[in-house]
Amino acid sequence: MAIRISPHIAGIVPYSPGKPIEEVERELGITGSIKLASNENPRGPSPKALAVLSEAAKTVNRYPDGGGYYLRDALAERWKVAPDQIILGNGSDEVITLLTKAFLEPGDEAVMADPSFVIYKIDVTAVHAKPVLVALKNHRHDLPTMAKAVTTKTRLAFICNPNNPTGTYVTAAEVTAFMQAIPPDVIVVFDEAYYEYVTAADYPDTMALLKAGRNVVLLRTFSKIYEGRAGRPRG
Ligand SMILES: Cc1ncc(COP(=O)(O)O)c(C=O)c1O
């Protein structure tokens, strides 16, 4: 009997990850290439991380603490929020998946820029909700048009700041105007994966929005935070 894949799933164009570097070198008959895809740290893991990993390897016979008790506590202390305001994921990718599962029902809408981080569209589509794409303007999020794209069906809005793939950012004033223009029950997801690289003085303080009680989610990630030399954690 023919199996049937749900049409909204079958229509998803899968994320295409870069090939392993060994494979590229074998195909092209080259050596010594440098992989720049996926914005990974090219300099290898920190010796401190390697030491912790080898210690942790001694207890892999036990389930790990899936809730990340100590890490949540440490992050809560670091950002002066309650531990239950923090959720950890296997990368912020997983948190994006959880957000779409938690807040979107079939037919709901999620507003996002285009092009932006491709996972938003994939995850929104996977829960049978509708990604509403708003074209970038001069390679930047067009927040006034994104605000106008919000309807009574909109549950989520994604703002990738700085944006992947264009590297542009939206300013504090632009975000303030956006937050004023949309209904307070729309959850705004600020994906700040590249937060530690921002130097602009007019970059928005989204943590202040959270502390003011707005419905916002801030995504941060350890995968981009260290670029190998001295990282430059902010704030
Ligand atoms: C804008 C943005 N958000 C989220 C992610 C996901 O990162 P991770 O799952 O490693 O936290 C990436 C990865 O490239 C990204 O560029």
Write up this protein:
There is one protein chain. The chain is built from ten helices and five strands, in the order H-H-H-H-H-E-H-E-H-E-H-E-H-E-H. It has a domain at 68-225: Aspartate Aminotransferase, domain 2. It has helices at residues 7-10, 21-28, 47-56, 69-79, 92-103, 118-126, 143-148, 172-181, 206-211, 222-225; strands at 109-114, 130-135, 154-160, 187-191, 216-219. It has a five-stranded parallel β-sheet with strand order 2-1-3-4-5. Pyridoxal-5'-phosphate (PLP) binds at residues 38-39, 91-93, 117, 160, 164, 191, 193, 221, 223.
CATH class term of the domain at 68-225: Alpha Beta
How much β-strand is present in the residues? 5-15%
CATH architecture of the domain at 68-225: 3-Layer(aba) Sandwich
Order of helices and strands: HHHHHEHEHEHEHEH
Into which percent range does the helicity of residues fall?
A: 25-40%
Q: Output mean pLDDT.
A: 92
Give the name of the CATH superfamily of the domain at 68-225: Type I PLP-dependent aspartate aminotransferase-like (Major domain)
By CATH, the topology of the domain at 68-225 is Aspartate Aminotransferase, domain 2
Rounded to an integer in angstroms, the radius of gyration calculated over CA atoms is 20 Å
Number of helices: 10
